[in-house]
C-alpha cells in the first residue's frame, strides 16, 4: 500500500469485528490523548487506537495489520521523554494501547516473582508487591502513569537503580507478540536459564521496534524495615560526589537512592509546585540521600548521622535535615520528584539525559553548564538526577524573557554542546529515557559502524516488513 493512503476500510471493519467499540477507538476526541507526548515535542495523527483486552486479541489484530502492511505504534502510559510512543504525522500509523492488559497474573512471595501484564501501571505493580509483603523497587516520577510494558521497553532506570539496577535487571521472563502476530511465551521465572541467545533481553530497551511486550516476570525483594531520607545542602559538585563515596564506603548496600539537584532547580520547585516549601533554602547544590534496609535494627539513623557529621566537619555538607516521619520523608522526595513538572512550568527547556562514569559527574556538570552559557548567554543550567548511577539530566532552561520558540530552535546546538562534553568524558548521549524519535539522528555518530549495522540486521530479521514503531530508535 502506498505511504499516503489512509487505513483501508476492510481492515478497519475486521478490527472492529475483532475488538468491538471498547477495543477500537476512532472518535477524534478519544484519539486525542494518544497523539502527543508529555513534553509536547511531537503531535502525530492516527486513523484509530487499538486497545486489545487479551493477548489473543492483540495477536490477531497484529496479524491483520501485518497482512495489510499497516505500521503500529505501541503505547503504554505515554510518558516517553523522547517521543517514543507518538505516531508520526502521516496518518497511517495505528496506535496500539496496552492499557487494558492490566492484570497482575501471579505473585509468588517464595520465588520472589510477580507476573504482570504490560498495561499494569508501575504504582499498581508496587502496591501489589507490597500487599504480598514484598517490594518491587523500580521507582520514578511518572510511576502513577507509566506501565510495566513501557518501563521494560525503555529499560527505565529511575531513583533506585543505584541499588536494584535498571528495569532489565528486574526482569526474568517475557511474553511477546511478534510483528507477524505470533505469541512467544518466555514467561520463565528462573534465576539461571542459559539456553542460547537471551532473547528476552532483545525486547528490553527496544522501544517497541521489535514487538509488543504483553507480560513479564518481575523480580521482587524483601520490604525495607528501616528507611532514612535526608536533604543535604552541599558545597559544590565535588562535595556531592564525596558524600556519595562516604555513604558507599560505610555501607554500600544501604544506599537506595542518591540524587543531585541544583539550587536553580530547587528554586523552580519552590516557585511552581503547590505547597513547594524547601527546608534548606538558598543553596547552590543539594543532595537527597535515601537509605533502606530490610534487616531488623539495621542502625540506619546512626549511620546517616555519623556520615553527615563527618561531611559537615569536612566542609562538604553545609546543612542537612533528616526526615523524622513518613510525611517528612515524602516531602523531601517531592522536591526531587517534581523537578520535571517545575521545569516545564518555568518555560521552555532542552533535556539531556546523559551518563558518564560516576567519578566524572562534577566535571560533566561544570563543563556542560559553562559551554551552554557560552553558547546562549543567560541560559539557565538545571542539572539534576541520579548521581549514584552517573546519570545526570543535564537540562537547560531558556533565558528569562527569551521567546520559547527561539530557544527551542537552538535545541540541536544545545544537545550537541552537552554531548561533546559527554563524549570527552567517556559517557553516553542516552542514559535511561531511550532514543525514541528525538535522538535517532545521533545514532550514526555514537553507535555507527558494526554496532548500528548489527541492530539493523536484528530489526530486519525480527520485523522484515518494518512495521513496528517506524521512525524510532534506528535512523
Ligand atoms: P510509553 O511512553 O507509552 O512508551 C515508551 C516506549 O516504549 C515507546 O517507544 C513505546 O512504543 C514503547 N512501548 C510501550 N509499551 C510497550 C509494550 N508493551 N511493548 C512494546 N513497546 C512498548 N524514565 C526513567 O528511566 N527514569 C525516570 O526517573 C523517569 N522519570 C520520568 C518522570 C516523568 C514526570 C515523566 C513524564 C517520564 C519519566 N521517565 C523516566 C520517562 C519514561 O521512559 C518512563 O516514564 C517510562 O519508562 C515510560 O513508560 P510508559 O508506559 O509511559 O511508556
Ligand atoms: C527524572 O529523573 C526523569 O525525574 C525525568 O528521568 C528527567 O525531566 C527530566 O529531564
Ligand atoms: Zn531520571
TrEMBL record:
SUPFAM superfamilies according to UniProt: FAD-binding/transporter-associated domain-like, FAD-linked oxidases, C-terminal domain
UniProt keyword annotations, A-Z: FAD, Flavoprotein
Pfam families per record: FAD-oxidase_C, FAD_binding_4
GO MF annotation, one: FAD binding
Leader peptide range in chain numbering: none
GO biological process, one term: respiratory electron transport chain
Residue ranges occupied by any FAD-binding PCMH-type domain in the UniProt entry: 42-223
Keyword Secreted: no
Cofactor: FAD
Presence of keyword Amino-acid biosynthesis: no
Family: Belongs to the FAD-binding oxidoreductase/transferase type 4 family.
Name listed for the protein in its UniProt record: FAD-binding oxidoreductase
Organism of this sequence: Roseicella aerolata
Amino acid at each position: 500500500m502506498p505511504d499516503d493512503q489512509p487505513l483501508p476500510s476492510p481492515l478497519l471493519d475486521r478490527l472492529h469485528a475483532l475488538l468491538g467499540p471498547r477495543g477500537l477507538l476512532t472518535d477524534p476526541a478519544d484519539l486525542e490523548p494518544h497523539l502527543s507526548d508529555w513534553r509536547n515535542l511531537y503531535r502525530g495523527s492516527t486513523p484509530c487506537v487499538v486497545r486489545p483486552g487479551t493477548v489473543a486479541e492483540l495477536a490477531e489484530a497484529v496479524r491483520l495489520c501485518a497482512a495489510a502492511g499497516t505500521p503500529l505504534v505501541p503505547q503504554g502510559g505515554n510518558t516517553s521523554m523522547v517521543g517514543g510512543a507518538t505516531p508520526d504525522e502521516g496518518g497511517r500509523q495505528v496506535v496500539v494501547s496496552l492499557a487494558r492488559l492490566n492484570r497482575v497474573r501471579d505473585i509468588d512471595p517464595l520465588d520472589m516473582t510477580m507476573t504482570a501484564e504490560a498495561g499494569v501501571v508501575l504504582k499498581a505493580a508496587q502496591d501489589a508487591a507490597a500487599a504480598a509483603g514484598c517490594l518491587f523497587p523500580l521507582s520514578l516520577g511518572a510511576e502513577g502513569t507509566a506501565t510495566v510494558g513501557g518501563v521494560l521497553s525503555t529499560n527505565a532506570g529511575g531513583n533506585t537503580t543505584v541499588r536494584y539496577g535498571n528495569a532489565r535487571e528486574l526482569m526474568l521472563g517475557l511474553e511477546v507478540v511478534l510483528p507477524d502476530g505470533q505469541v512467544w511465551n518466555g514467561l520463565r521465572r528462573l534465576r539461571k536459564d542459559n539456553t542460547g541467545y537471551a532473547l528476552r533481553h532483545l525486547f528490553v530497551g527496544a522501544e517497541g521496534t521489535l514487538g509488543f511486550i504483553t507480560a513479564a516476570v518481575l523480580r521482587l525483594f524483601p520490604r525495607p524495615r528501616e528507611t532514612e531520607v535526608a536533604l543535604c545542602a552541599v558545597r559544590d559538585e565535588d562535595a556531592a560526589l564525596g558524600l556519595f563515596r562516604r555513604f558507599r564506603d560505610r555501607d554500600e548496600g544501604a544506599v537506595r537512592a542518591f540524587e543531585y539537584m541544583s539550587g536553580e532547580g530547587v528554586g523552580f520547585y519552590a516557585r511552581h509546585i503547590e505547597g513547594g516549601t524547601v527546608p534548606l533554602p538558598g543553596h547552590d547544590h543539594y543532595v537527597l540521600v535515601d537509605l533502606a534496609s530490610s534487616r531488623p535494627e539495621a542502625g540506619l539513623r546512626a549511620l546517616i548521622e555519623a556520615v553527615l557529621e563527618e561531611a559537615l566537619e569536612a566542609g562538604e555538607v553545609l546543612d542537612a535535615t533528616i526526615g523524622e516521619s513518613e510525611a517528612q520523608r515524602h516531602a523531601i522526595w517531592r522536591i526531587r520528584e517534581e523537578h520535571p513538572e517545575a521545569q516545564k512550568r518555568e518555560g521552555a527547556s532542552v533535556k539531556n539525559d546523559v551518563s558518564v562514569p560516576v567519578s566524572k559527574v562534577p566535571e560533566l556538570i561544570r563543563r556542560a553548564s559553562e559551554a551552554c552559557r557560552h553558547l546562549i548567554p543567560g541560559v539557565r543550567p538545571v542539572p539534576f538526577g541520579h548521581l549514584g548511577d552517573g546519570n545526570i539530566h543535564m537540562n537547560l532552561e531558556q533565558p528569562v524573557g527569551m521567546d520559547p520558540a527561539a530557544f527551542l530552535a537552538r535545541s540541536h546546538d544545545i544537545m550537541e554542546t552537552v554531548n561533546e562534553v559527554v563524549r570527552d568524558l567517556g559517557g553516553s548521549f542516552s542514559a535511561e529515557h531511550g532514543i525514541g524519535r528525538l535522538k535517532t539522528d545521533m545514532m550514526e555518530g555514537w553507535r555507527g559502524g558494526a554496532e548500528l549495522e548489527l541492530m539493523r540486521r536484528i530489526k530486519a530479521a525480527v520485523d522484515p516488513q518494518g512495521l513496528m514503531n517506524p521512525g524510532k530508535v534506528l535512523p
